[in-house]
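Two entries, shown back to back:
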Amino acid sequence: MAFLIIFCSLLVTVLSGVYLIFKLQYRYWIKRGVPCFAPKFPFGTLRLHGKRRHLKETLDDTYREFKLKVPFAGMYFFSTPVPLILDLDLIHNILIKDFCKFHDRGLYYNERDDPLSANLLTLEGHKWKTLRSKLTPTFTLGKMKFMYPTILEVMNQFEQTLRELIKIQADVEIKDLLARFTTDVIGTCAFGIECNSLKDPNTEFRRMGKSVFQNKRHGVLGRALMTQLPGLARKLGVKDVGDDVSYFFLKVVRETIEFREKNNVRRNDFMDLLIQLKNGSSSHDGEEKLSFEEIAAQAFVFFVAGFETSSSNMTYSLYELAKDPDIQEKARRQINDTLKEHGGEFTYDALQEMTYIDQVINESLRKYPAAILLLRTANCDYQVPNSDKVIEKGTRVFIPLYSIHHDPDIYPNPEMFDPGRFAPEEVKKRHPMAFLAFGSGPRNCIGARFGRLQSRIGLASLLRKFRFKTCSKTPAVLEYSLTSTTLAPVGGMCLSVEAIGS
């Protein structure tokens, strides 16, 4: 009984101490004269209305309330004060002009216990800069042209799979099917492996890809520890990537490297470059070679980011085109007219001339961006231009990408899907930071060109051969998963599909 009393007393003391620390921290923005909604223990300003909502809604509340008043507003991510950047010129400074002062994202990684987490997305400082420069040659225009026939071959398999499927059922779960397509594309382009997930949706590559997004290793408290106290989390050996996923990718990369080196196989793909970096043949004098774990981490993030973002972009594009037959027909008409000019051949050059498809992709990325915000961390005290405010060293900065993309002052009637917004003359009228689907500056998405190529081939091929319509299972209003790290619709995406070509 005495032990229980002592334990309860200690627990009350600890909780009271934590509560007091939070309350003191919640005076951060008040003391600096930065406007902020009143935070609530323990979530800060993440739950402004007392209930769990999608983060994009919370960011949007702050963005709309303060965007015309100040260059940035205050938020609290649990107890951590976070500036939400509202001014597009300040965003330009952070991402481009003053990039040297904001070069890190501040994402959690644990190189020792969780090697796959230490990748180009999360790494910081000199290590990131060196790795970025080494990996950039993977995504040149020449490499895209080289990969084009491979992606087209997978696309032909996709068309066959879809044709067989609609013989049985008119309504198709298109999101999963597109994810299987991009899984097969990434598998062959990055690893030189035929994943065959179009033929079998339960292949290991597909299961592991789904696991990354659906089976989160930690709940709210675990993720709070990684974001709020990353140093402590690393000391405790906290991992982000699931053990099954980690084991699978380390095994696949190890076997791929061993097979290629033993049999002297060269494919001029992503894995080829990584192997060269491991052996030092692509390094400058004095540069360290990449370890096996570093190679696996880059292959992992390329696979995960590549299959999910492109499949989501195509899913949302087809959803909007199914709802608006006129836009769909306009896109199809340009595809067919362009192919006629190229003798019916679906060449790389023909694809580049399908500019309306690009506008559809951009408008889909505007309305449904894969990431709802960009993260940067100040590596020194930063004096905000034309202001007496300072963003202090170590402060993590939020850039509300989703809110900017849905700002009616930038994009009138933002909920309307209008590819015309991305006609060249319209783009020129807007601030360069008004569209941030791939980020901007030195730390923009390194695989943007590859992602666009996947989406272009996918949409152009599908619209050429199939017509998409809404059905009884198609959601009229989209709801988004609160647990997904991307903007993922709850319940997938079902569309009616009919073949229109041979």
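entry 2 starts here
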Amino acid sequence: MASFSGLLAKAQMEVTAAGDGANGISSLMDYVGKGGLDVGDDLVVLLYHIQFACKRIAALVASPFNSALGKHSALTGAASSERDKPKPLDLVANEIILSALRNSGKVSVMASEEDDAPIWVNGDGPFVVVLDPLDGSRNIDASIPTGTIFGIYNRLPELDNQPVEEKALLNSLQSGTKLVAAGYVLYSSATILCASFGSGTHAFTLDHSTGDFILTHPSIRIPPRGQIYSVNDARYFDWPEGLRQYIDTVRQGKGKYPKKYSARYICSLVADFHRTLLYGGIAMNPRDHLRLVYEANPLSFLAEQAGGKGSNGKSRILSIQPVKLHQRLPLFLGSCEDIDELESYGDVQQKVNPGYEV
């Protein structure tokens, strides 16, 4: 495994070779603007506001006072108004991002896990943003990593004459193949923004001394084969036969890769995917649990741009046409050869959930 200093040195060499940055170090804004990618002014403005919102969320997650959010104090009496009650942290994160998207002037629609329906933001905005504002928020009190997941589409101008609710929904239900950009922000020992704009997957680490996201993982390539699987195997006896056979086989070193696989499971989608992206292997939830629009599609886009795959156990995630905003499905992300081997077992999607809620 490469050290952080080694990854930073690699990033410096790549940016220097591109002729960007006096010191051979590139910030996210430089990289997507005048530097390595030149994604266009509108998208640069939008990304500026997204990364600003995520820096606010990072500070909130790390605050010693966040544990009070969403909990009713014993001191609040009957006279307290509803608006005075603290909000759960994921709702606060949702409001922070919505405010940032409004201020950008570049977003027509925002569709979030926290909202029942998409929000029409600005009729002139060229982009549609789908997001999970704070994935894994239930883990915050235990200081387990959390994250923000987002995907960006072009607004569909052919829908402009439709009623607001209809065009907001249809803009949000675009196939993952139409993503313009996608990314996640990992709030952990470091705050890392990993994104793709259709030309590779790149990760930027927040430098708290300057407030900039600095390119530290350029052109990430997920290994074609890993040695780690990530899944809640406490549910082993609820799994279909194909999935049990696959896990039994690879952890005994009897699969197509003749080494025993290790289990690594954080129970935080962004964190489990981030590790898989860097080291290879497979991260999965075989239940109809994760959301296609704002979790599976953006992460599958990142996986593919890094040379990996995103699958529902049978087919490519990005090729699935969403029909509902909060549509759920099984999700398998990781190395190409690992995904191919998993799919070869056939029966890997868990369709029943005995004894617990989805």
